[in-house]
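F.,

This is the one I mentioned.
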């Protein structure tokens, strides 16, 4: 009976939770979830490259690049993950709820679509586009603007060019050469290599995480909680997560505040698990430490929680009778609890993608203890000790260095309900203090490909130029073209990013690089029957006979070596 009552209370709270946080836009925020070696990011096409850092937010139009010996992982949402091998570059062209689009400019990437994925995915290269057909693992290697190799390790995908498309099945590989009149070859994919094994291990760590059963499934990054803490039961609230940290630790204390146009001040934690607990849910002090309450594990269909830059209450401290609002004094913050209302510092009037108002307290109804951190700052020494305080000149200018909190000052604190009165600077847009080595960036990161194939508007038959070659799109020249939805433009919601040194101005558009000449095929393929042009008779990789043949070969093929295939 008691458990049923708790379940009912959480369900009621969940309904309010959904209503209070219903998103007004379908634009999402990706997470740089793993950084190994020299990884750089770019905020929009015209911004400077900067050093990447774990838990850095990435929005539509942002790019990521890896240097020699480096790897990176970007969680696009809870089920779609992009991973880059060394010397690779990719741009996040679209991050909406229903459509994800990535442009791979150079190098080797893996794209995993895990269980429960809901968004339609597209990966573009300079000469083709890949459309995964549901769950699967897809490996894309861009050797040049005119050569792309695609391997399907699991699942199926449609591979298309401006002249047609074909379906690629698990265990198959397609090599496409050329741009205006591309040629292709379908063969069995080679055996797995170290990059494949690394991706598979990462996928398993995400899918097998026990924490998924204790939090909303749309919370990106919940899989990281297993290794850095444990779950405990709190009466009236259900399961809460307690991180394994040192005594005296408090939330939102290890990291920095970064200025994100459209969102404003955004918390970037340097803790490996520091994504989901800082952008969803609530914190409160329970027994001997801080715990994270993820909110109700909702059963409401189609509910998507709102990602927030941080769930904190900003506090203004006074020095000499002058507040931090005029540049003198100190500014602090404390995580909001389940019983605290939330006052966002961004909103529709400031051009963001999400229209927000004050979020009402989310504590379950009829609970004995309604945890309110803001109300208890001056009475509970644990909450007072959890306040993070910095000087006004240090806020948003690098890694947080805490100052000692005086209990008398805490009792006279002013809660800032709205925009934080601290101006952002050039340092505010950086997620890391590490300098970028421009010479280490991949070619595509500097030059940016002049075009990407994207989704073709329609297929069109082209006469054969050499015997034995084939074009995508079918064995019947002259067939009616198949209409396809146009590719979304690569734009950044909320306007262009301000230039770092002049926050209120926009950077003029940089000149586009001159188109590079197309790389010719290494050898003519006229005498090789395995190479085809699109739309002409020949193997297309999507007939029943091809599927059966591919399956038999895959079943009989063992493991093997690998490497990067060029």
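My design for it:
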């Amino acid at each position: 009976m008691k458990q049923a009552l708790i379940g009912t209370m959480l369900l009621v709270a969940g309904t309010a939770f959904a209503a209070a946080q219903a998103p007004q836009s379908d634009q999402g925020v990706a997470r740089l979830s793993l950084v190994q070696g020299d990884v750089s990011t770019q905020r929009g096409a015209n911004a400077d490259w900067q050093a990447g850092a774990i838990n850095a937010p990435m929005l539509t139009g942002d790019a990521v690049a890896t240097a020699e010996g480096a790897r990176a992982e970007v969680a696009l949402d809870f089920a779609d993950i992009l991973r880059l091998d060394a010397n690779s570059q990719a741009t996040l062209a679209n991050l909406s709820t229903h459509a994800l689009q990535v442009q791979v400019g150079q190098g080797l990437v893996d794209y995993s679509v895990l269980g429960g994925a809901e968004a339609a995915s597209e990966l573009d290269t300079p000469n083709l586009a890949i459309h995964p057909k549901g769950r699967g693992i897809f490996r894309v290697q861009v050797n040049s603007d005119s050569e792309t190799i695609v391997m399907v390790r699991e699942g199926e995908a449609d591979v298309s060019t401006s002249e047609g498309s074909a379906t690629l099945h698990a265990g198959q590989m397609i090599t496409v050469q050329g741009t205006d009149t591309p040629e292709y070859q379908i063969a069995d994919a080679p055996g797995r290599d170290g990059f494949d094994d690394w991706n598979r291990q990462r996928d398993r760590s995400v899918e097998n995480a026990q924490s998924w059963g204790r939090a909303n499934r749309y919370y990106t990054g919940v899989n990281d909680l297993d290794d850095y803490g444990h779950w405990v039961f709190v009466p009236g609230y259900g399961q809460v997560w307690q991180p394994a940290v040192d005594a005296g630790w408090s939330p939102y204390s290890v990291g920095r505040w970064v200025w994100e146009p459209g969102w404003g001040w955004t918390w970037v934690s340097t803790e490996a698990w520091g994504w989901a607990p800082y952008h969803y849910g609530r914190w409160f002090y329970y027994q001997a430490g801080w715990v994270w309450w993820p909110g109700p594990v909702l059963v409401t269909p189609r509910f998507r929680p709102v990602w927030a830059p941080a769930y904190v209450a900003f506090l203004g401290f006074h020095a000499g009778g002058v507040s931090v609002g005029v540049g003198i004094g100190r500014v602090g913050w404390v995580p909001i609890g389940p019983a605290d209302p939330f006052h966002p510092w961004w909103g529709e009037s400031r051009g963001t993608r999400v229209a927000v108002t004050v979020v009402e307290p989310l504590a379950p109804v009829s609970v004995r203890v309604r945890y309110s951190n803001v109300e208890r700052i001056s009475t509970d020494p644990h909450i007072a000790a959890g306040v993070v305080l910095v000087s006004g000149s240090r806020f948003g200018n690098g890694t947080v260095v805490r100052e000692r909190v005086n209990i008398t000052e805490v009792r006279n604190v002013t809660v800032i309900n709205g925009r934080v009165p601290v101006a952002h600077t050039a340092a505010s847009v950086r997620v890391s203090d590490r300098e970028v080595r421009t010479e280490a960036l991949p070619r595509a990161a500097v030059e940016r490909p002049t075009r990407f194939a994207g989704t073709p508007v329609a297929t069109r038959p082209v006469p054969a130029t050499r015997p034995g070659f084939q074009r995508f799109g079918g064995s019947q020249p002259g067939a009616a073209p198949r209409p396809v939805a146009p590719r979304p433009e690569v734009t950044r919601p909320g306007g262009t990013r301000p230039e770092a040194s002049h926050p209120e101005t926009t950077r003029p558009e940089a000149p586009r690089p001159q188109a590079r000449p197309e790389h010719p095929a290494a050898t003519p393929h006229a005498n090789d029957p395995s190479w085809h042009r699109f739309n002409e008779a020949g193997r297309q990789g999507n007939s029943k006979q091809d599927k059966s043949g591919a399956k038999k070969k895959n079943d009989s093929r063992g493991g093997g070596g690998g490497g990067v295939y060029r």
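The chain has seven helices and 31 strands.

Talk soon.
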